Automatic annotation (TrEMBL):
This is Trafficking protein particle complex subunit. CDD domains: TRAPPC4_synbindin. Keywords: Endoplasmic reticulum, ER-Golgi transport, Golgi apparatus, Transport. One of its GO terms (biological process) is endoplasmic reticulum to Golgi vesicle-mediated transport. The keyword Endoplasmic reticulum applies. It comes from the Eukaryota. The gene is LOC110792799. InterPro entries: Longin-like_dom_sf (IPR011012), TRAPPC (IPR007233).
Amino acid sequence: MAAIYSLYIINKSGGLIYYKDHGTASRMDTNDTLRLASLWHSMHAISQQLSPVSGCFGVELLEADTFDLHCFQSLTGTKFFVVCEPGTQNMEMLLKYVYELYTDYVLKNPFYEMEMPIRCELFDLNVTQGVQKDRVALLGR
């Protein structure tokens, strides 16, 4: 099973509203996570504008030597991205699963204010369980 290092959710304005570290490597500090989220939001927006093909939805995969970054953008502009081991498969399905959890546990929460940081224990618990589950069981649903 491939390792998932971290999961991020960025609101449509580019603000980091959720971050979860799942890796065993050194953890980034808060400023670094905020910078990464802001940078990814900007790169995603620029890629949509620079695309020679109309209807581009931005960067969905960034491959590097030591990690892959997979991104899913919802229709409302909220971006979900995961940093994982190179070559990890089915991350799009995992991100869509996290989006389902987001709609079920965050957006349906009457106390959640849109575009604000996510502080929902059930969402956090289910995301952690989803990432730690056997990948075949999670993605075969």
